[in-house]
Amino acid sequence: MIELTDVRKAFHGQPVLRGVDLTIRAGETFTILGGSGSGKSVCLKHMIGLLRPDQGRVVVLGQDITDMPEHDLVDVRTSISMIFQSAALFDSLTVYENVAYPLREHWRVPEDRIAARVAESLEAVGLAGVETKMPSELSGGMRKRVGVARGVALEPKVILYDEPTTGLDPANQRRIGELIVSLQRELDVTSVIVTHELDLCFAISDRVALLKGGRIVAQGDAESIRTSEHPDVRAFLDGVRDAPDTEDSLGGPARA
Ligand SMILES: Nc1ncnc2c1ncn2[C@@H]1O[C@H](COP(=O)(O)OP(=O)(O)OP(=O)(O)O)[C@@H](O)[C@H]1O
Ligand SMILES: [Mg+2]
Questions:
Q1: Ligand nearest to the CA of 244
Q2: Residues with Cβ within 5 Å of ion ligand 2?
Q3: Is 68 helix (H, G, I), strand (E, B) or coil?
C-alpha cells in the first residue's frame, strides 16, 4: 500500500530522515513511534507528497509519487488523506463547510450529495448534527473528530493520522482510538498512525515501528515490539519517549 525506500530528507543541511525503509500493507493499522522531533510528521508528509525526499523513493497505492507533478498528486490525494497534528480546521468556516471542503475540491456533484456525505462523515465520528457550529464552539476532542470526519469524507483507502490523541483527556483519547479501529473495520482502510502514546499504539496497532536517529531502528507486530529486548525500543518504552530526539542521538552510537 505504501513503500518508502531509503528515504532521506534534510532541512537547512540538518538531516532528519537518514534512510527510512517502510512497507505498509493493505488493511493494516501501522503505528510509527518516536521521540519529539524524530521526524515522524516529516515521514507521514512524504507519504502524501507534501514533502519530497532528497533521495529514495515513495510508492503509494502502486504509484511512484517521488517526482509526481503536483497536478497528478491531486488524484492520489482522493485515496489517501492525512489528519493533521493540530486539527487544522478553518476557523472562519462552519463545521459543515470544513467537512465539505475536500468534497467540493474533488467531487463535481450537486449540493445535496455533498450535504448527505457531510452528514454521514459526522455521524461516523459520533458528531451528528453539529454542522452549523463554528470550530471555536467545540471542545478539543470534538475538533479532532471533525478533522477525522473531513479526512474520511472522500472515502480514502489510506488514512494517515498525525498524533490523533495528543492533548485530549483519557475519555476522548479512548474515543478516538475506537474511532480509528471502527473506520478501519467498516471501510477496510489502511491506517498509519504517528504517536508517542503507547496505550493507544498497543491498543490498536497490527504492526509498530520505532523511528530514531532518522531511521527505522525496529519494527514488527505490536506484541513483539511491546516485549522487545532491543535497547532503543526498551529505552523508548521505559520512558525515554518523553526525551527529545537530540542531535547526538542522530546517527551516534546506540546509547546503553
Ligand atoms: N518544513 C520544515 N522546514 C524545516 N525544518 C523542518 C520542517 N519540517 C520539519 N522540520 C524539522 O524536522 C525535524 C523533525 O520534525 P517532525 O515534525 O517530523 O518531528 P516529530 O517527530 O513529528 O515531532 P513531534 O512529536 O514533536 O510532533 C524537526 O527538527 C523539525 O524542526
Ligand atoms: Mg509531529
A1: 1
A2: 41
A3: coil
Rounded alpha-carbon distances, angstroms, from residue 37 to 34, 121, 195, 242: 8, 32, 12, 11
- Choice from 16, 192, 196, 216 to test ligand 1 binding pocket (greatest atom count within 8 A of CB): 16
Question: What whole-number distance in Å separates Cα of residue 133 and Cα of residue 81?
Answer: 24
Residue nearest to atom 10 of ligand 1 (CA): 11
What is the spatial distance between Cα 206 and Cα 191, in angstroms, rounded to a whole number? Answer: 10
Please report which residue ranges of 39-94 form alpha helices under DSSP H.
Answer: 40-47, 70-76
pTM of the model: 0.88
Beta-strand ranges (E) seen in 90-173 are 158-162
62-116 per-position pLDDT tens digit = 999 999 999 999 889 889 999 987 768 999 999 999 999 999 988 888 999 999 9
Q: How far is CA 46 from CA 75, 83, 147, 242, in A?
A: 16, 14, 20, 24
Residue 214 CB contacts under 8 Å (≥ 6 apart), including other chains: 15, 16, 17, 18, 19, 20, 38, 39, 250, 251
Looking at residue 39, what DSSP letter applies? S
| Set of cell numbers at residue 188 | 477496510
Question: Cell digits for 51?
Answer: 514533502
Q: How many Å is the Cα radius of gyration of the chain?
A: 18
